[in-house]
């Protein structure tokens, strides 16, 4: 299904077709790129928050090993996503330089890489932290690689709403690795990321509308229009802002988190309102760019406070 | 021996750059395996501890 062929790759290398194996061009960093390191860093961060906020204790080495498994599992899902989406990636400016469309790694290699790491990370997490955490990690990989990548992404503009669940699971997995259970606290962490995902990605989709149209991905701005996307961004932000404060309202965090999350949520809402209000293409693009950048900062700060609050008292 | 036959005997010939990349991949894989061995050792010690030496056979 990929646009990449062996002959194209050998041609690029200036060699006779069939003379050189594809993998001979791959550098270590190409395999690392298959793991989507930026997404992986967010997964590590949010899973660490789940581990730290959990009421029980986990030995630091087991916590580190569990975190490693969650990170590798997320990376494996990223590799499977890149394997399936190589044709789309080759048509989008944002993704054209990824290892498969660039011809540095063959699709089959990426598939093997993703499958081996998926199975390995789930089995290891099962050994290190228990069955529930491993089952949640397996479900997350399945959800991202199959439900989101293979099914929802090319089928419905609600792709990132439902698919966002995959990105929301890591704190729950971290929590389950420590406690062996799922609780309201970990579900709230899940919901914060779940409702954060649509405004974050739709702000990007507003900016990259042409890219998604060229790739044939039915993102909301392409299917329902910019007006509906702006409205949906505002609606999801209206849910997200109070949800961000929920850990404090439910008594799981201190007052500092409560105040900070309220302020951060209000700023998020202000940016979402800016997008909703601005109808001219230039002003809306500027507002979308601001919300996209701020949404990353918002989630980072929210989880950073959750992470350090127990340490500073 | 003519040129095509000579090349066929040699099989796949990698360039210097391809050799360098293959070596880098091999080293990375070796390091990952070594790190995994250390990780499994440490986790075994943490989970079972000194009792690992006095388990009934």
Helix content of chain B: over 70%
Count of domain modules of chain A: 2
The total strand number of chain B stands at: 0
Strand content of chain B: under 5%
What best-fitting shape of chain B do the alpha-carbon axes yield? elongated
Structural class of chain B: mainly alpha
Indicate the mean pLDDT of chain B: 82
**What is the molecular shape of chain A?**
flat
CATH architectural grouping of the largest domain in chain A: Orthogonal Bundle
Q: What's the number of helices of chain A?
A: 15
Low-confidence stretches of chain B: none
Q: Outline of this structure?
A:
The complex is a heterodimer of chains A (313) and B (57). With 313 residues, chain A is mostly helical.
What does this structure look like?
The complex is a heterodimer of chains A (313) and B (57). Chain A has helices at 6-12, 28-34, 37-53, 60-84, 86-89, 107-129, 131-152, 159-168, 170-179, 184-207, 209-215, 220-223, 226-249, 255-277, 281-312. Chain A is an all-alpha fold and 313 residues long. Chain A has 2 domains: 21-182, Tetracycline Repressor, domain 2; 183-313. Chain B has one domain. Chain B is built from 2 helices and no strands. Chain B starts with a helix and ends in a 9-residue tail after the last helix. The relative contact order of chain B is 0.07. The chains are: A mainly alpha (313), B mainly alpha (57). The interface between A and B is medium-sized, with 17 and 14 residues.
